[in-house]
Amino acid sequence: MEPSKAIKEYKEANTKLQIEVGEYAKKVGQLTIEKDWLVEKLKDLDLSKKLEMVDESKSKVMSVVKQCELLHLSRSNIYYAPVVNEHKLAIKEEIKAIFEEIPIYGAKRYITNSKRTALM
User: Fold this and answer.
1) What does the CA dihedral 51, 53, 55, 61 come to, rounded to 10 degrees?
2) pTM for this structure?
3) CB 67 within 8 A of CB 77
4) Which residue of 4, 36, 71, 96 is most buried, as measured by CB atoms within 10 A?
């Protein structure tokens, strides 16, 4: 083994490694910038759009926990099912039916000064 040949091979390998590391660093930097940009855009979405984006069937590729973390979304929002109060819903429907039948109900009534003095 010649020392000069081994040193030359070592320097060539080191140069190749530095080039590869530089390429990887560029790629990581680009991906980081893209991810940060997407995260900022995703923050502006409303809750329903974020919930639509979570895909539980692809949990092998990316877990639901990670998807929620990237979307800045609480996991409890995914599994939450609102409780419907049937009694309140029936009352709302009745009020709506009455308003559609007689739309003046619930409207503000303006009293003129002459009527106000007569009432006092």
Assistant:
1) -130
2) 0.44
3) no
4) 71
